């Protein structure tokens, strides 16, 4: 029986290269381990030569694949994906199939087995509410908005810092009640509050205190600890800190000092970015690094400088292109890894940011769209998933949906107002698509929300200037 490697070799030789014979190489007796090109032996399959049926230990195939757990998983995954492509499954996005899933978990207490996610409460709120906001075109209801605001106000006031005399304000935020503030929790909590579209609530966030807290996490190399004295330090922390500062209007040169250099050093030889300098490039870290870079560059230089002045954009584009699987059409986060629906945003959003700033988006959007619609949905279970064979979850529902928004849009920058808030998205089909919104890929929020934040911050700056006169 032929092995998979032999079948692939025959396919390449006969159909792709037009050959009708196998090519095998003998090992040189004089130089073990080296291929002796003078000892080539051509075996004509069509003539039924007896030699073709003999297994000579000294003859090895041209291509010998190393079998690993990853290669076996990839073959199994690809089989499941091809089954999805060959089926008559959902080819359109139907938000009504997924909305009950989001509603259920927003209206009910989570089961006891999810206690392990107690410190991730702000994340779960953001994943569910952002998905619902996009699928329902912003109609999430006043009752849900009120519950979100109450949750984070209480969570911020009942904490190790609750003794501080700040009765009229709140923030920073922790993952749960009586927990210490964490950069990732703050990021998710503030995004959730922004989705409530309530300027009054956002104005009650103690911005000065949040700023002091961010500065307490800042390290001399420009990175940020995610939590005081014990947090990780990588590009995720930089992104969370700068996103918070940007959305609250508390950016400063002091806050971003050395951060640009730290991010530049994180670009790996592959083209993508690692979590820290000299680490392997990864999809999530790359998104965080690029989004942080444009926030800093826009704040410090505006339109005077571009990404090309700081990083190798061509290398980054090549690396992004290599993340799209030629057979599965989905995206992976690292070299030789499996496709995963969440990278539709972590990598897809990275391509969208580059597209907005005038670079070519190297992702084949039509193929990625096919992967999202046919492989990340299930007719049996609502919600969006990693890949066929996996169950849907909050995290993948949000980021796969954001990825779908990216592939269904063209991105550009409003040059009259050159800032991260001015990214514009145009739906590729020039019409509204049910369940898909125009998003700002830097923040992972709808453009309509970001426009309101920009308006509030502009009005706040205007009032400050008037009071200063």
Could you characterize the architecture of this molecule?
This protein has 469 residues and is mainly alpha-helical. It has 2 domains: 4-65, no CATH class; 95-468, Glycosyltransferase (Alpha/alpha barrel), CATH 1.50.10.20. It is built from 18 helices and 7 strands. The strands form 3 sheets. It has a 3-stranded antiparallel sheet, covered by helices on one side. The chain has a two-stranded antiparallel ribbon with strand order 4-5. Strands 6-7 form a two-stranded antiparallel ribbon. A hairpin with a 7-residue loop joins strand 1 and strand 2. Helix 3 runs antiparallel to helix 4 (121-135), helix 6 (183-194) runs parallel beside helix 9 (235-248) and helix 9 (235-248) packs across helix 12 (283-301). It is globular and about 80 Å long. The relative contact order is 0.09.
List the helices and strands and how they pair.
Elements: H1 4-16, E1 21-27, E2 35-44, E3 59-60, H2 69-86, H3 95-107, H4 121-135, H5 142-157, H6 183-194, H7 199-203, H8 207-217, H9 235-248, H10 253-256, H11 259-265, H12 283-301, H13 313-322, H14 343-346, H15 348-356, H16 365-375, H17 394-407, E4 409-413, E5 423-427, E6 439-440, E7 445-446, H18 447-468
Antiparallel strand pairs: 1-2, 1-3, 4-5, 6-7
Helix pairs in contact: 3-4, 4-6, 4-17, 6-9, 9-12, 11-12, 16-17
* DSSP strand count: 7
CATH fold descriptor of the largest domain: Glycosyltransferase
Question: What structural category characterises the helix and strand content?
Answer: mainly alpha
CATH class of the largest domain: Mainly Alpha
Strand content: 5-15%
Number of domain units: 2
Mean pLDDT over the residues: 86
Q: So how many helices? A: 18
Question: Any low-confidence stretches, pLDDT <50, length ≥5?
Answer: 15-49
Q: Please give the alpha-carbon distance between the first and last residues.
A: 87 Å
| Strands side by side in the biggest sheet | 2-1-3
Shape-level CATH architecture of the largest domain = Alpha/alpha barrel
Please tell me how large the radius of gyration is.
Answer: 26 Å
* Shape estimate: globular
Order of helices and strands: HEEEHHHHHHHHHHHHHHHHEEEEH
The percent of residues in helical segments reads: 40-55%
Largest sheet: 3 strands, antiparallel
Domain Prenyltransferase alpha-alpha toroid: 93-432
Family: Belongs to the protein prenyltransferase subunit beta family.
Keywords: Metal-binding, Prenyltransferase, Repeat, Transferase, Zinc
Pfam family, one: Prenyltrans
